[in-house]
Amino acid sequence: MKNNIRVERAIKDITQAELAEQVGVSRQTINTIESNKYVPSTVLALKIARVFNKPFEQVFMLEDED
Amino acid sequence: MKPYFLFPYWWRYLGWSLVVLHVPLSILGRAHGMVSVMDNGPGSHGLFTGEHLFFISTALLMTAGLFLVAFAKEKIEDEQIWQVRLDSLRWAIYVNYLILITSLVFIEDVGHILELNLWVPLIFFIIRFRWVIFRLNRSLSREGDHEK
Predict the structure, then answer these.
(1) Which residues in chain B have Cβ-Cβ distances shorter than 8 Å to A44?
(2) Do the Cβ atoms of A25 and B76 come within 8 Å?
(3) Which of A3, A57, B24, B36 is the 20 to 30 Å CA partner of B17?
């Protein structure tokens, strides 16, 4: 699964640390999700999409190998 | 995320102090001619004799210390930490059984196999868990330069 978090963060003009605080995880977790090293749980992914006010599929998308 | 039981964050320091305390105690005990119960098999001297108390104060102190270090909360305990924790536990079990089975086949000294089994999972878990967290932090500080 890949995601647009980095882009969405730039649009909303917030840092990794600010996003992390809003969804209640560590900055490391946001960082590893952005670099596609960690796939978040459904709950966390929905929380992140809610911060950006975007539908889930606009922030997270499946890849061919998924 | 559902809460699950872990010790409070600062208990890790309590754990480390127990581990550190174990070293002078066991050296002192051995200097006074105390032999670990493990050397003769547990229970060979009866309960609460000198040897048994020495065993409690060293081996169990060390195990309790390692246990607290291993299962104290991180500062921010989120789902990724939880996954790293589970993954490290899985590896600790693999390594423990590999060593246990190998030593059962090749070593006759059962007392020391027990001692090994008491510590290997915890020590391996702590090393693997801290190593992954260290790597996470390192990649964060490398990327931190690009972060505004």
Answers:
(1) 79
(2) yes
(3) B36
